[in-house]
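Progress note, sequence design subtask.
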């Protein structure tokens, strides 16, 4: 898939999510919050499958596999943290009797943001040398 197709698909998924979010925020609808987040979870599943396919196609021998897993672990960890953040947000919104703190709810997102900053910093340092 080319970059333009990936970008268009990402925008389409975001558009569907925002439409579902607006429909859920209407006072007449009482959908489950997990249903509203389905487009994002489908997108995350496609991302994980895409990364796995990239690992399989680039894997030539066993020594290369370790390098590929180290390289792509950032992507897999990022998607998994995003999914965990979405689940926490859905739990907070859907089951208010759980009384989840907003700080506990946002822990996966904070970890994702910090790890993204570290990843970008490491890439910039490596590219400078």
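Output:
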């Amino acid at each position: 898939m080319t970059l333009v197709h990936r970008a268009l698909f990402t925008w389409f998924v975001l558009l569907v999510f925002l439409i579902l979010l607006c429909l859920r925020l209407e006072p007449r609808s009482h959908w489950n919050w997990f249903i509203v987040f389905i487009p994002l979870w489908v997108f995350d599943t496609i991302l994980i499958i895409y990364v796995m396919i990239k690992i399989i196609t680039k894997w030539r021998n066993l020594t290369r596999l370790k390098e590929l897993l180290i390289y792509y672990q950032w992507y897999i960890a990022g998607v998994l943290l995003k999914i965990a953040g979405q689940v926490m947000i859905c739990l907070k919104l859907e089951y208010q009797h759980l009384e989840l703190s907003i700080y506990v709810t946002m822990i996966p997102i904070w970890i994702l943001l910090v790890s993204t900053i570290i990843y970008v910093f490491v890439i910039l340092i490596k590219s400078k040398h």
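The chain has a mean pLDDT of 88. Work on this subtask will continue into the next period as scheduled.
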